[in-house]
Structure formats: C-alpha cells, structure tokens
Specification:
CATH architecture of the largest domain in chain A: Up-down Bundle
Shape of chain A: globular
Oligomer: heterodimer
Strand content of chain B: 15-25%
Helix content of chain A: 40-55%
Number of helices of chain A: 11
Number of strands of chain A: 10
Largest sheet of chain A: 4 strands, mixed
Chain lengths: 401, 377
C-alpha cells in the first residue's frame, strides 16, 4: 500500500503548473466542456492543443509510434488532474479523439486506421478533432436500439438515419459512429458496427441544439445516403456493441481525475470566499452549518480522488476498468451536484448572476457548474445506467431492465 | 502508487479470516453479549498465541515488529467478523500510546505484559457528555506533594469491568484550558476507590461507568509529561480512530456481501429481488460507500505510517465511517425485509454496534469541525 506519487510524477505536476501560469496569464479559464461553443474560444483551445502536443502531454500515455510519449498511466493522471485544475483549454479537443477513439483504434482498429488517424489526434491539429455519434432519438439509455442503417454496396456502406446530442459535431473532422449493419437479429445488441465517418462527406447535415444556457455544445446529425468506404469499418462487422463496451470504459475512466482537478479548485475558491465574506455581521467561515457542508464536500472530494487513483492503478496493471469507470462516473455526478448546490447556497443570491457579469462571484465558477451539472450527469450515460452496469458487472446481479 | 496489500498483509488477512470464522461465530458473538465478561478467555489466549496482541510492538517487548498498516488489516478482519472483547481497548487505546509516550520502564513492563496476554487495558476519557473535548473533562488528579489523587467519573469506558489497567485522562492544571492541564495516568483497576459498573448498551458490548474516589497514583505512573495529556489524547484519537474506521470498513464489507447474496436468493414476483432496479441501485450505492470508505481508511493509515500530517484525512475517514456504517446497515435491513429485523439474523449484530463505533473517538460533528479547521476555516 503506497499512495505516493513518484518524483518524476511530481516534477511533471510542477512543470504543468508553470506552463499554465505562463500560457493562461490573464485568462480566467475553467476546465471546459464548452470551448467548442464560440469561434474565439475554440481557436484558443486549438492553439493550446498544439502547444500541449509540442510539450508531449496531449496524448502522453500513448505509445511513441502513435505520437505519444509512452508515459505511465499515473503520469497521465497527474496531467489530467493538473490541467483540469487550471482549466487548460484544448486538453480534450472535443473529447472523443483523446478520450476514447485513439485508445479504441489501438485495440481493434486496422493497421491502416491506426497509422492514419492516431497521429493526427496526437498532433493537436484541427484535423484530429473527433465527435462521437451514438445517441439517436429513440436510442438514449437504451443505446442498443439504434436504427441508423448502414447497407453495404460494393466497397462502400450507405448510411441513412439520424443521430442526436452529438457534442462537437460542428467542430469535428471525423465522427466515431455506431450504426446498424444487420437489422434481422434476435438481440438488438447484435448487428451493430462501428465506423469512421468523414464529416466532409456529402449527405451530412448538422443542426445546432443550444442548451438552456444558450451554449452550443451538441447537435442534431442527419445522414442522407452518406457513403463510407468499407475500410472505415472499425473492428468486426456486427460486433460493434462489444467494442463499444470497452470504448465507453475509456470514456468514463478519466472522469475522476478530470472532475477532481476542477472540483479541487472550486473548493479552494469556496474556502477563500467564506473567509473573506460576511453575512449578517459575521464571517461566513464562522457559520457552523457552512463549515459542516464544506467539510462534507471535502470528504467527497477525497473519495473521488482515491477512486481516481484506484482506477489508474488498475489500468496500469492491464485491467480494463468496466465497473470502476461506471462507479467513478456516477460518483462524479453525485459530487458535482452536491458541490454545485452547496456553492450556490454559499454565494446566495449572487448564484443567479450571469457568469460574465461584473456582479458574478467566484469568477462565475459556481453558477457555471450549477448550470452544467445536470447535462454532464446525462452525458456518457446517466447515473442509472452506470448503476445498472455496476450491479451486473461487479455485484453479479441479474439485469434490472 | 500501489493499492495492493503486501504478502505479509495478505497472509495476516487470510489467517485472521480463517481463525475468526472458526472461533468467533455469530452464535458466540450473541452469547458474549449476554456473558458477564464480554469476551472468551480461551479465544483471547489463542489470539495471544497468534501474536496479535503484540503485533506491532518491537521484538524487545515480546512483539513481532509488524507495522501500523498490518494492524489496520487485522482490525478490518475483526470488524468484518465482529470480534467482541478488549482487543481494541488494549491495543489501540492503550498499547499504542504507551509505545509512543511511555518511558523505558513503562514500555518494558506494560507492553511485554500485553503481548504475553497477561493484562487487559482500557482508556477512560469521556465523561457525562460522552464527548472528547477538554472542556467536558472534569475528572481531576490533585498533587498532594507526593502522589496524585484522582476524583471523578468516566463514562463509556470499554471493557473496564475486565481490565487490569486503565489509562485515565485527568485535569492536573491550574484551571481548565482547552489544550493544557490534562494528564494521562496508568491506574490499576484494583486500586482502592475505583468502582466499575456496566452500562447496559444495545450491543451488550461491555462499556462501563468508572468512578474514582480518592484514588492514589504515584507520579511515576503518568504517561508522557504532566499537563501534556491533550497531546496524548489527540494522538490516541488519530491512531485509534483509524483503527476503529478499519473495523467499521470490515463490518460494512460483511453487511454488503450478506445483502448481495440475499438479493440474489430471495424471490418475489417470480424474480430475485436483486433484479429490481430500486434494490440493485441501493446495493450499488452501498458498494460505492464501502469501497470509498475502505480507500479513505487505507489512505489515512498510510499517511500516519509515513509520519506525515494526517489530521484532516483521519477525520475524513472517521466522519465517513460513521455515515457509511449506519447507512449500509439500514439499507441492508430494508433489502432483507422482516427477516433482517429478527434476533436470529446476523444483521442486527452489526446494526446494534453502529452507535458505539460512531461515538467513540469523536462523533461526526467533531470530525467535520476538524476537517473545516484543517481546510483553513
């Protein structure tokens, strides 16, 4: 049992801190899910992606042959945590490519696919930006219900159908897409395939869906006779569901260090705020209810930290963390909500002030988290879906749905 | 970073699990709740033979020189099984502070006697309030120029009725201050003026009221320095709290496993109840609670074992343990339904111990306050 980071890992943390202080000087950045919304933010994020790639951090844990550094999972953990703490834009490049496409291609992509796509992601170039299209109007939590059809015609598939909630589709160069290649199956999990779709293909229409804060993150995605070369099939035809289970574990695995980083920063701001702010003639910091709530959030933060360490440790031993990733995702959701609501209680009436207003408190961080957490808790699978996965895969319980 | 137990810890774990499941069945646990002594001397001497009492003492005091993390693993197993008796009070509450603050004679005499199973110990801190704040401690030890004379009353002293020695926390300073003026004395249980009486608790776990009336102790029997007792108490509250948390983490694992087995076996509406999402998600929440607790305990214990400052992490573990133990038991009883509410079911044995674990060594509010202070509030 040893919870110490190595000297090398600690040095990396210091280096990232120095980098963030210099590169982000004068900007109030916060770990971003919205950098794709405005052209200006996106441009800055992409410039940072390239800087991060030059530093060798962007995809550090990938093998050198794919543009990584062959860094350890724990070095990557430190990087993700620290980059999220500082809110360095561009660390996820629209999320998909860095989060799971690269890793999934390494596992079940063809040699040609590996050579073509992985180094592009690692370079931090706009041509390495991916979106992921799983959800459809009738396939949300019941994701195996997808109906977008891919019919083989010679050396191409012809795709027709509709995807929805596709984050970053308006910025992406490529799409990681789940489609139905066989409709005559007994179990709907069968007959699903994974494909790489060029976003410049004729027949693709992207329509923005603004979230309730007016931010453009996700999109409707229509496919009308879109032609995809058969060489863009990833893995085995009709086995996509099983490839996806692994992809989803990748998608969820880095959530703990990521949210830990930004939550760590938010909690620091909250502590500073209650020390400096008076209410009813007394410092907020002397209010026992507030002290208790902040202490409870600190317990949750530490729990999340250790869940993050545990999953990284397991991955470094070759485990594909299926239930652990689901647990960490569900725990992030739970903690995000608690942190956001505690934060709003502390800043009180100012929690409703627009984040960019001169009256906003704590850089608008709390208000932003408050607006974002319900959406984040649905993305990448709801709480309930995560708990079903844990029930089945860890506790060995019968399917509950 | 490494979450793995080492070879020695794994051996200890396996040995403890085998031994306890054999020697300390739930039938015995229930018997001991009714038994005057509250422990089984035969099982106790086997634990002595296994080297558990002196597990972390240096070899010169008849110990085996294992480290604190090994003891954490052992406590986890003891909690998992439920192991009634004065092990925790003797080792966690008394031997560990003696190792740290005892002088050479005290260590040689007391640690050796503990490791060899020749004496049972306990700690008397809390009084009428049941709490651990200095301001609530009124028991006094007045120096008459030759000896200290102890007067006062202590509550919730575990296993005092079978102990041979007490560590007693007394006021020795001028007036009461928040961090000065306390001293810790080694007091023989048989001393004149000591009266012990069992407090009937819902767990039947042998907690006592102990009254001291003009009890004479020599100044040689102070542990550490005079008027420096708060430091000793705080030290105990860290080390012993983590060990108590390990015990709770073990208990919670047992509750979870028991409930998970039941949810697969129990059929209602023609299906195992574990296939119903409401039940399944309760179990999953329990798993997340229990894993989180276990890692927080290991983390705090590891910090202590490296000698790092661990105040906040210890309090995080204790506050979490208090919450998780109670929630796991309540949810488990709900999932079991009426059977979980019966005297013959093992669950009740765990549930009835929740409050003892919660209020010993600091309740949730005390630890939340420590966390808040540690964060700079």
């Amino acid at each position: 049992m040893d919870f110490k980071f190595s000297e090398k890992e600690e040095r990396l943390r210091e280096e990232i801190r120095r980098f963030a202080r210099v590169e982000l000087a004068g900007r109030n950045t916060i770990a971003g899910m919205e950098e794709e919304s405005s052209d200006e933010d996106w441009e800055f994020a992409m410039s940072m992606s390239r800087r991060l790639a030059q530093k060798g951090w962007l995809t550090m844990a990938w093998p050198k042959e794919y543009g990584g550094q062959g860094a350890s999972f724990f070095e990557q953990h430190v990087y993700v945590d620290e980059a999220s703490y500082w809110g360095i834009p561009g660390t996820s490049m629209g999320v998909s490519g860095i989060g799971w496409v690269g890793l999934s291609l390494m596992l079940f992509g063809s040699d040609e696919q590996k050579k073509k796509y992985i180094p592009l992601i690692a370079s931090g170039d706009p041509d390495g930006v991916w979106c992921t299209a799983y959800s459809e109007p009738n396939a949300g939590s019941d994701f195996a219900n997808i109906q977008t059809r891919a019919v083989k015609s010679g050396d191409e598939y012809i795709l027709n159908g509709q995807k929805i909630w596709t984050s970053c589709a308006h910025r992406a160069r490529w799409c990681w897409m789940a489609v139905r290649t066989d409709a005559n199956v007994k179990k709907k999990q069968h007959g699903i395939s994974l494909m790489i779709v060029d976003m410049k293909s004729p027949g693709i229409t992207i329509k923005p869906i603004l979230n309730y804060a007016g931010v453009h993150i996700f999109n409707e995605f229509f496919l009308d006779n879109v032609r995809v070369p058969v060489t863009n099939l990833v893995g085995t035809e009709n086995r996509g569901w099983y490839h996806l289970m692994q992809s989803l574990a990748f998608e969820r695995h880095s959530m703990a260090p990521q949210f830990f980083g930004s939550a760590r920063r938010i909690l620091e701001y909250i502590v500073k705020y209650v020390r400096e702010t008076s209410y009813n003639g007394k410092p907020l910091a002397s209010d026992p209810v507030i002290r208790n709530k902040i202490a409870e959030r600190a317990i949750e933060l530490d729990t999340l930290k250790l869940f993050g360490y545990e999953i990284t440790w397991k991955m470094s031993r070759g485990v594909i963390p299926v239930y652990e990733a689901a647990r960490n995702k569900a725990y992030c959701d739970f903690f995000m909500q608690r942190l956001a609501t505690t934060g709003t209680e502390i800043i009180g009436a100012y929690s409703q002030v627009d984040m960019t207003s001169r009256w906003s408190r704590i850089l608008g961080l709390i208000t932003r988290l408050y607006l974002m957490f319900p959406g984040l808790s649905i993305a990448a699978g709801t709480d309930e879906v995560q708990k079903n996965i844990i029930g089945q895969f860890k506790l060995g319980l019968p399917r509950a749905y | 970073m490494d979450f793995e137990l080492n070879e020695q810890q794994n051996m200890l774990k396996t040995m403890a699990r085998d031994f306890l499941s054999r020697e300390c069945t739930k039938v015995k646990v229930r018997e001991l709740e009714k038994n005057e002594k509250g422990y089984d001397p035969d099982m106790w001497s086997k634990m002595v033979e296994l080297g558990w009492l002196g597990l972390i003492f240096p070899e010169q005091y008849a110990g085996t020189g294992a480290d604190f993390l090994d003891l954490v693993i052992l406590m986890e197993e003891m909690g998992r099984n439920i192991t009634p008796g004065p092990f925790f009070s003797t080792v966690a509450l008394c031997a560990i502070p003696i190792m740290k603050f005892g002088n050479t004679q005290q260590k040689a005499r007391y640690l050796t006697s503990i490791a060899e199973g020749k004496s049972i110990w306990t700690l008397a801190v809390a009084e009428r309030s049941g709490g651990y704040e200095s301001s609530d401690l009124n028991c006094v030890a007045n120096y008459n120029g030759e000896d200290f004379i102890i007067n006062g009353e202590k509550m919730f002293v575990p296993h005092a009725h079978v102990a041979d020695y007490f560590l007693v926390v007394c006021n020795t300073g001028e007036g009461k201050t928040s961090n000065g003026g306390l001293s810790v004395f080694v007091v023989k249980a048989k001393s004149r003026g000591v009266k012990t009486e069992i407090i009937p608790t819902i767990a039947g776990d042998g907690q006592c009221r102990v009254r001291f009336k003009n009890v004479k102790v020599s100044k040689r029997d102070v542990l550490g320095k005079i008027n420096n007792g708060r430091k000793v108490v705080d030290f105990i509250m860290q080390r012993a709290a983590v060990l108590k948390c390990a015990e709770v983490a073990g208990a919670c694992q047992a509750v979870l496993e028991m409930t998970n087995v039941y949810a697969k076996e129990r059929i209602q509406f023609d299906k195992p109840i574990g296939s119903f999402m409401v039940i399944q998600h309760k179990l999953v929440d329990m798993l997340t609670d229990v894993e989180g607790l276990q890692y927080l305990v290991y983390h705090a214990a590891w910090l202590l074992s490296t000698g790092a400052k661990a105040d906040v992490q210890v309090s995080i573990a204790k506050a979490k343990a208090n919450e998780v133990y109670q929630r796991a038991c309540i949810d488990s009883i709900k999932i079991h339904g009426a059977i979980g509410f019966t005297i013959d079911h093992d669950l009740g044995c765990y549930f009835r111990r929740v409050k003892a674990a919660e209020f010993i060594l600091g309740d949730t509010n005390l630890h939340l306050e420590k966390i808040a202070s540690g964060l700079g509030l």
